[in-house]
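re: that complex we talked abt at group meeting.

here r the seqs, copy pasted straight from the sheet so there may be weird spacing, ignore it
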Amino acid sequence: MTRLFTDVAADPEPRGEIVGLWTRRAVLTIFAAIAVLGLLDVFGQGTTQTAASTPAAVLRVTAPKAVRGGLFFQSRVEIRARRAIAHPRLVLDVGWVEGMQFNSIEPAPVSEASRDGRVVLSYDALDAGERLIVWMQFEVDPTSVGHRPYGLELDDAETRVASVHRWLTVFP
Amino acid sequence: MDLVLRTIFVFFLILVITRAVGRRELSSMEPFDLILLVVIGDLVQQGVTQSDYSLTGATMVIVTVALLTVVTAWLSFRVRRLRPLLEGDPVILVADGRILERNLRRQRMTVEELGAEARLAQITSLDDVRYAVLETNGKVSFVTASS
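got the structure back, here u go
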């Protein structure tokens, strides 16, 4: 019976324990790195702003660059017309709708269409100096993991006025 | 980012709650306490992960909780002054055979409950108890006159 104790006492620092200790420390370091990356918004869902400025308009998109399955989030599109835009149209990259539940869009577009696989939202004419803000609310489909283009183009009918290029990552 | 921040907030909220509720209540799990614990767990989950169904989110939360557990344990080990705050101090309930009613009252503990704890420790009478201490884990340890 006493051998159960004497055997342990004979090797107070077994190699397995030392290896285990360093493994535990390494795992905790990885944990700390994950938590720090989380705080730095690497895994979503903090928003960033991308803007494009042309003589005709300023186009500004505020949205997350990374999201996770199930999250609700908002994307905000702001257009400030520098000259009159008779037929403002927002042409969305595929990432705006692929694997997303479109909960609401305010103000709603006058019409929706498709152009070469991209969704086109048409709005009423904008006068010079006028501002249009579109709020879009989404929920991420948990099964649609990936990295997709999340750019946006502002057209006056078929003519490009301004465009921003962004990407959206959906984490599993 | 806010997932990690929410986890940190909830971790310290639970720490404060457990310290405020008291060790006795948490160590003696009655059916009601058990159900309440499950309900609290569900409410906490809703507050932390909200609509997030992702593995990434779950990983971040679990990793953050694990890290905070290790950090608080390390702080408690290294910083003596933080120990009462994080773990609490043992409370003496019987000293030199005399029951300290005031300490029992502070722990919302009756003499009958102390007697029940003594019975569980195979002690037949409180008269045999020389020292009784409510440990930080909520258990009562006894030193009998004969030991």
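couple things i noticed - The interface with chain B takes residues 28, 31-32, 34-35, 38-41, 43-46, 68-72, 139, 142, 171-172 of chain A (CB under 8 Å). The longest strand of chain A covers residues 72-81.
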